[in-house]
Amino acid sequence: MCGNNMSAPLPAIVPAARKATAAVIFLHGLGDTGHGWSEALAGIKSPHVKYICPHAPVMPVSLNMNMAMPSWFDIIGLSPDAKEDEAGIKQAAENVKALIDQEVKNGIPSNRIILGGFSQGGALSLYTALTTHQKLAGVVALSCWLPLHASFPQGPISGVNKEIAVLQCHGDSDPLVPLTFGSLTVGKLQSMINPANITFRTYSGMMHSSCIEEMMDVKQFIDKQLPPVD
């Protein structure tokens, strides 16, 4: 495992057109790489924002008969009560927190960073935002769920992100991560953070993918949470 993390290729980056005063860290889904999402984000970029799309390490995935593929953590099953890779999820969240720390060192404060992701990457971005001590500008959670949801306390979380803005999006025809997962997740989030800061959007006919309408909603959210400062 250690070897994988060390040898994971450098993230795909869409640099800011001028001095970067904000950043979006976006995590791809299972079996993918950061390249596709860096292209999608390049299509909605704002000049002062840097977009960072890391690549997950390659590891065997139980759900796919132990075939090795890019994955942030192991996925054992897709039902709401399936066993979860707790150690892997927590380690992956630490790796994302290290990415955030790196951007802070680069001069972008954490409250000018949005964490986002699609599917498994969206799940990891939600879990990381709810467990980190770094104050973030927001979370973009596309076609995903909240991992280890039973490990969170009932009721509001304390911590720096209890008022965080969340954009959660889901296709109503998703065969892989059904819309019910998205609805259960938004219900759980509303009990943990300020419900007024959560936006849940669904897209008619969209499967386990993205669409132009969704990307426009993502752009609007990013522009609202990360306005230019200079």
Q: How do the helices and strands follow one another from N- to C-terminus? A: HEEHEEEHEHEEHEH
In the CATH hierarchy, the third-tier topology is known as Rossmann fold
Query: Could you state the CATH homologous superfamily?
Result: Alpha/Beta hydrolase fold, catalytic domain
Low-confidence stretches: 1-6
CATH architecture verdict: 3-Layer(aba) Sandwich
Secondary structure category: alpha/beta
Strand content: 15-25%
CATH class: Alpha Beta
Average of per-residue pLDDT values: 94
Q: DSSP helix count?
A: 6
Question: Portion of residues in helices?
Answer: 25-40%
Radius of gyration: 16 Å
> Regarding quaternary structure, how should these chains be classified?
single chain
Domain unit count? 1
Shape: globular
Distance between the termini: 43 Å
Question: Biggest sheet: strands, sense, closure?
Answer: 7 strands, mixed
Description:
This protein has 230 residues and is α/β, with parallel strands linked by helices. The chain has one domain (12-225): Rossmann fold (3-Layer(aba) Sandwich), CATH 3.40.50.1820. The protein is 33% helix and 20% strand. It has helices at residues 2-7, 34-42, 86-105, 120-131, 179-192, 212-225; strands spanning 12-14, 22-27, 49-53, 58-61, 67-70, 113-118, 138-142, 166-171, 198-203. The strands form two sheets. A seven-stranded mixed β-sheet has the order 1-3-2-6-7-8-9, with helices on both faces. The chain has a two-stranded antiparallel ribbon with strand order 4-5. It starts with a helix and ends in a 5-residue tail after the last helix.
